[in-house]
Structures are given as C-alpha cells and as structure tokens.
DNA sequence: GAGATTTATTAACAATTGTTATCGGCTGAC
DNA sequence: GTCAGCCGATAACAATTGTTAATAAATCTC
C-alpha cells in the first residue's frame, strides 16, 4: 500500500496498529457470510478471494506481496461479505482491525479521501471483471492472462486459475493443449 | 431520484438547472468513448446502457421512469465512458450538466454525501452483474428476470433482453420455447 | 394501403464446455 | 520408504450455445 500521502503522525499510528501473523496455505482469513472486521496487508505469500457457488468454488481475484486486501464493501455497509479470503501459500500477513481503521479515518481527512478513492477503484475492478467475462471467451481470457500475468500462471495451482477463468480444470487442460 | 435529503435552496437550484428534452426511440444520449458531461432523469420512456463488443451490442442495464442515469465513473475520472446510453422508446428526459452538478455539490455537503453513496451503489450494481453472470446459466437468468421483472420482458424488445442476458436472440427463442 | 424494415421463430450444423471417470506423477506425513 | 491425497492430462459422451439461413409476423414510412 502506498502510504506517501499520510502525514507522519497518522502513518505512525497506522503502522503501529498492525499485528503480524503467519498462516499456512489453505487458511481462511475471512469467511463468506461473516461481517468483515479486519483488513490484511500481505508481507509474503499470496491470497485468493472466492465464493461458494452451489458447492463449487469460484475464484474472483488473487493478491500478492505488498497488496492490501479487505472487504471494503462490507466495511461500509456493515453487511456480511460475499467472499472468502484464503491463503494459497504460507503467508506473513499484517492485520489491522476495522475499529482501528475507523479511528484513523476519523482523525485524517487525507485517509478518508483515500478510502473514497479505494471505493472508486473497487468499482473499476468489478467493472473490469464484469466486462472481461462478457467480452472474452475463456480461451482468450487464459491467453490474456498468460501474456499479461505469466508469473501468476506459474505461481498459482492450475485448478485455481481455472476457477478464476470460470471454467473447469478439465477445460483449462484442453485449452492449454490447443496451445 | 429521491430528493428528500436536500435542503430547500439546493433543491430549488437543482430543479431549476434541469432542461427538458424529448427524443424519439433509438436516440443515443451519450456515446461510448465520449467524456460524459450530462446526467439524465427519465420522466417517461426507457433507456438502455450498452457497449460495442466487436460489432455486437452488449446491453448492461435498463432504466425506466423516475430513474437517474449518468456515467458517474466518467464524471469522477474525467475519462471517456465505456457505455452508450440510448432510448428504447420515445422519451421525455430532464438533463442537467456536470458543471451544474459540480456547482451544487460544492455548495452542499449533503449532496456530496449522496454522490458518495451513489458511487457505492454503482459498485454493488457491478458486483451483482458480475456475480449473476458467473452463478447462473442464461436460462436461469431469463427465468429470474421473468419472475422478478416481468414488466421488463413485456416492455422491452426481445433482442435487447437477449443482449442483456448475454446470449443471441436465437438462443433466447429456444429458451422461451423450452418453457 | 403498399413496400420496406425490424423483430421473432425455427432448423441444421459446428464448436465449446461440462460431466464423469481413469491414470500417472508429485508431495507430504508417518 | 510407503501410503494417501492432491494435481493435472486425457477420453468419451451429453448439453448448450453460436452461426447462418429461411420465413413469418409486426411495425414503420410514405
């Protein structure tokens, strides 16, 4: 997370508020249907965001080192989140509670503004996810991923990639064979 | 649009700023790729939002009487919008410019707050659109629409419905025949 | 009202994906 | 080292959708 816009005092309180945890792979940090009370900053490892779709796991996003993950929508509405946040690899993660974030937000107009920007960014993320599903075939989406995020393909188990592309791992295997 | 939260002076300025226009069906109010400078309030008639996907029109939303339509994302970023806004029926529409909205927003904290809420709502709209595409087959999406918005099915030409469901009108015909 | 345009249905065929099942390879636990 | 479990590839079959084309019905234009 880029913290350059915070003033010193806020930044200090911000970093002090974090608690560091270590989790093995396949650990669920936030469960679908629960009200989100924490935000996560990934020091090392990677996470995926997914939801249960009639017994099938649907992965919507991956997050890596130095990325911040939370259900900002759930923060705002206080409603249960729609997604699970789960580790794919063993991770070192910094955790901050919503209560602490709220306190910082109250004392810092800059931080408040950043939160608004984050909401707008999330809107564009969903817009992009939505349009990608419509515009492109699973095959094209795979090739795009291969071109733009090859490290993702190498790092993340294939069945998660398939789940992210919205197809079965069988179908992804076929696409890979086709070239 | 619910205006109950505005104070009197703002509300007056707000309503005075509107200019009423009448347009026939198939009129494009905002063109994809243009920077949005206006917002529309539908008095009568209905609009659809769509984008060009390799020569095929993809409809993402429909709007009806008493609904406000604009590219709020484009407003915020100043970047070209991704969508066309087009009339399906002859419409009576109230138009307000972004410049006027900006002026009102500057003078009214309440209005500013409403805009933030609107952004959050848009986020949920995209979230819902995205999840619906993933979770449900076109057939299920059609039946859901039939159950929850039967008036939409009656009012809107079928090929637009098909475009909204993400299928061809041929496929929609087949689904309808299957029952 | 006649002709043109748009809209919806249906048919036939191709292509892609899902489903189910099998198999081999890899990894981790003990 | 061995066993169990997970992961990826492949095959065979079913189901759905897209594509193209033909046709009928509805609507619009003049």
TrEMBL record, chains A, B:
PROSITE patterns to which the protein is assigned, alphabetical: CNMP_BINDING_3
Domain Cyclic nucleotide-binding intervals: 1-122
Highest rank taxon of the organism: Bacteria
UniProt xrefs under InterPro entries: cNMP-bd_dom, cNMP-bd_dom_sf, RmlC-like_jellyroll
Transmembrane stretches, start-end: none
A Pfam family this chain is assigned to: cNMP_binding
Name of the molecule in the record: Cyclic nucleotide-binding domain-containing protein
Organism phylogeny: Bacteria, Pseudomonadati, Bacteroidota, Sphingobacteriia, Sphingobacteriales
């Amino acid at each position: 997370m880029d913290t350059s816009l915070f003033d010193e005092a806020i930044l200090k309180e911000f970093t002090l508020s974090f608690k560091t945890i270590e989790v093995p792979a396949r650990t669920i940090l936030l469960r679908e249907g629960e009200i989100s009370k924490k935000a996560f900053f990934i020091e090392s490892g990677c996470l995926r965001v997914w939801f249960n779709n009639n017994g099938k796991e649907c992965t919507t996003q991956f997050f890596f080192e130095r990325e911040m993950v939370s259900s900002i929508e759930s923060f705002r509405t206080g409603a249960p989140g729609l997604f699970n946040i789960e580790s794919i690899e063993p991770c070192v993660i910094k955790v901050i509670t919503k209560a602490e974030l709220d306190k910082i937000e109250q004392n810092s107009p800059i931080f408040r503004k950043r939160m608004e920007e984050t909401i707008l960014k999330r809107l564009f993320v969903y817009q992009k996810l939505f349009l990608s599903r419509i515009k492109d075939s699973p095959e094209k989406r795979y090739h795009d991923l291969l071109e733009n995020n090859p490290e993702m393909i190498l790092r993340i188990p294939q069945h998660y990639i398939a789940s992210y592309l919205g197809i079965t791992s069988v179908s992804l295997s076929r696409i890979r064979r086709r070239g």
